[in-house]
Amino acid sequence: MYSTHYLGRQPIVDARENLVGYELLFRSSPVNAAHVVDDFAATATVIRHAFVDLGVAEVLGDRLGYINVDEQLLMSDLINVLPHDTVVLEILETVRATPALLVRLAELRQRGFRMAMDDLVSLTSDKRALLDYVDVVKIDLSQVELSALPALMQALEGFRGSLLAEKVDNPEQFETCREFGFKLFQGYFFAHPTVIHSRQVRPKVSVLLRLLGLILSDAETDALEEAFKSAPDIALMLLRLTSTAVMADKSAVTSIRQAILLLGRDKIKRWTLLLMFATATPQGDKVRHNPLLELAAMRGRIMERLAQSLRPEAPQLAEQAFMVGILSLVDALMLRPKTELIPQLPVDQIIKDAVLDGRHILGEWLKVTVSLEDENTVQPAGYDAELLTRIETESLDWVKRMWA
């Protein structure tokens, strides 16, 4: 049910060796090496790990992220899940400059995407055609001798973007490229790639398919909200995405519904597709639900029903209560401390306070909810035992129905 995700990250520096970005690299294990069989699937995995599992704030901070893209991903609608102000699309050397591709690159540039040409060794007709669309040209020093740089620089005369020397392994290469006017640098001379990892719950493909089906059938927002509520792991991903997607409204999220509306159906559809590509396993979808997910959904539903029963005049409080319920188990679901995870989520402060410190009425209701899980725990005074029993039974039925 759990899987460990790995992501390679190598610094990119300027001529003064100041950090300006990272290239994000596919890794399938703690071993700092790539074994890529499918470029599209590898990039889908990188995107998921960087923007969903780990979070863009942890992976990039305020730096740019260079992500390898092949022709299939460039032409795909999935490219639109990426925030154009955070990433640089690094066009792989295998991409051919067809008329359709050049039209696509022009569209992406118009939307604000920056692009880089990967592994330039010689200026072929394909590479020359791409020059008008890229902001950065990466020259691979493991394949280009320093003595060959003058001729290559002459061929690139007129290119108005920045040159990046990659595979820089020694001071001589760095100084020579700097003298030739290179602005960006990457290689072992500065830093080896590091591997960062997180251990996450793997979402069921069947749940993703159900969610995708609801979106494609133009289901009501209520139905989408229920689908997310039945899958707390995917709901947590939704919250992460609202903090990384390019949106005009950066306000704190107070409910699952608001996160859906902020992100938008189109982006949810694209992310769902990408998650399916990155989640596929040889075992297919034979993984059983993690009991923690059921418990998180149960807590969320009990919290929601408590709010609806005790404060019916405040519907927003019920939405916040559900989020407090599922986030109360975020440390167990993500195997990282709440104090590390909760501050990164774009949720309202009252939700954070309730989860972390048990404050406000939401924090009190969370204690009541947790007390229902252990028959030996004394329930807080002032709550109708019959009401709590009814809410607990209704919530259990709801969880079973949602996962039937």
From TrEMBL:
Residues 1-207 form the EAL domain. InterPro entries: dGMP_Pdiesterase_EAL/HD-GYP, EAL_dom, EAL_sf, HDOD, RNase_Y/CdgJ. It holds the Pfam family EAL. Residues 201-393 form the HDOD domain. It comes from the Bacteria. PANTHER family: CYCLIC DI-GMP PHOSPHODIESTERASE CDGJ, PTHR33525. This is Diguanylate phosphodiesterase.
